[in-house]
Amino acid sequence: MTDVRHTRERIAGCEVSVQRGGAGQPLLFLHGARGAGRWLPFMEALSQTFDVIVPEHPGFGQSETPAWLDNIHDLAYFYLDFVEHLGLQQVHLVGTSMGGWIAAELAVRNQHSLRSLTLVASAGIHVQGMQPGDIFLWPEQELIHNLFADRKLADAMLSEKSSQDEQDIQLKNKLTTAKLAWQPRLYDPHLTKWLHRITVPTLIMWGAEDKLIPVEYGPAFRGLIPNARLEVFQDCGHLPHIEKMSDFVSALRRFLQGVQP
Amino acid sequence: MKFFFVHLMPYADLDLSYTEKYNSAWVTLPNSYYDPAKGHLLYNRYLDELEYAEEVGFDGICVNEHHQNAYGLMPTPGVTAGALSRRTKRVKIAVLGRALPLLNNPLTVAEEYAMLDNITGGRLVAGFVRGIGAEYHAWGANPAESHERFHEAHDLILRAWTETGPFPFEGKYYQFNYVNPWPRLFQQPHPPIWIPSQGSRETIEWAADPARRYTYLQTFSPAAALAKYMAMYKEEAEKRGYQASPMQLGWSVPIYAADTDEQAYREAKPHIENLVNKFLKMPAEMLLPPGYLSLQSMKGVMSAKGTITGGPQTIDDLLKKGMFLCGSPKTILQQVEEYQKQIGFGYLLPMMQFATLPHDLTKRSLSLFASQVIPGLRRLGEPELVEKTKKI
User: Do A175 and B291 touch (CB under 8 A)?
Assistant: First the structure.
């Protein structure tokens, strides 16, 4: 078992909570709208070969909500500060869903510290006529079911009793997600204009059965980022890192080995 | 007391079996359920009812704003108020909404209200609301910005009304080089401002501030909530060094009057139940989008189950909670008198058409209320009277 360190870092006037474990090149994981939660099996697996760093975004989980937090761009700049603050270089940046959006916004601004970029079922762009699901209008049960291809996984997640603290954190995460992504819903109309600036090797991953952000968004991202390839997981919903954990870890490892300096 | 007739202008011809296929009369109910031929008749019928309220002796009439739903067909209340402003001659016209955070440019409200105030020669009452949660789904406005936008839009409108233009406005959400609305208001410094709410400490503290002293309206809430929030307003006023006048407090409540209690109950039952179970039906996610309430208030609401989204309700549930007044004029008079003496509000805003309640019943109830309830309550809660009582 990896020894996971929990620290709090003060960056840009905001104290954020960070989990970090393993050794090797730094792998910065940016979580999606439902938060980072605990140290998950895919983090454990990756920490065998990487220095895995999992912050909770400002406004999420145990991190503070700074007065300056208004939109996704603020988080992109925040993570540029974060990388500098921790003195990280040659970072493998991995973002899922809303975290993918932050990662893409960061990379179009400054990829100086990046070695690679991985976008997992990423938000951030809009494909005409391809409406994503409505995470704010779906009742909680339906939302959880729509995150997975395998109904049993959703049922298992729904049967877990959450503590009052966890419920409060979900409310907080939802509020911050709304603040950042309500309108336009989960994308920035200007991002597509600048994705061509991303020149680091990029892997895009998607679940074929994603009901939240349809798999058609995968090829769209690939078409906009010059040095990108796409990996699609069959029988998989919006969370490949959870639903297809071992396939996800293998695919990511293969990709990252290919880009080693 | 003063009496303002509230109309929501619902789509009364709604096919009520819609609930077999859809979970709400808001936002996602297909507008194929709306028949324009019926809509034409309804709009004109409702305007007649509002005009009739003036004829029978109400002090004011109220219109409001809701979007993309069958519950209330006034997405642009200025149109309704404009139609009424020429056909009525005496009553105040209260626009209870505009929902300020939904607007890209709040100066449209400064202008629209100023036009109404000029046309009516000062009969406008200016309402400002945030809109209910569903509007944020319908309109794409960000609920997490709702409070901040409301306050900034309000400040912009008030400055536009009270400062000589042109001046620049430098806000977070709204920026203008030239704020200089024409026409200026007829009422100076500005019309009475009313703040309808379902109850929140933040709103009450803000409305009760001595610089504002806005009339706070508690809408469609249990009597216990009414008492609690009105007491809160009075306490806030006292904390800030003044005594709130009854005219700073209003209660908006559905009311139905008939000759006898039994008749009123029988006639109102299907329609008031349609109001809560059909026209107001929506899931919690629609009613309370994230950020619409502060985290603290949200936690409170989540733990107190049984609100709008808490399943079907009967007329008896509503009567028991004091969310609906129904009976003979004598019964209603006694109930209002009792509540008024306990709670001390100066405005009563009866919603006397609701959901599917037909025209003839609406009209008869309005007429009974105006002729047999209003006269008995007139002197209650009038500021002069309160002053005199205190001296004794």
Answer: yes
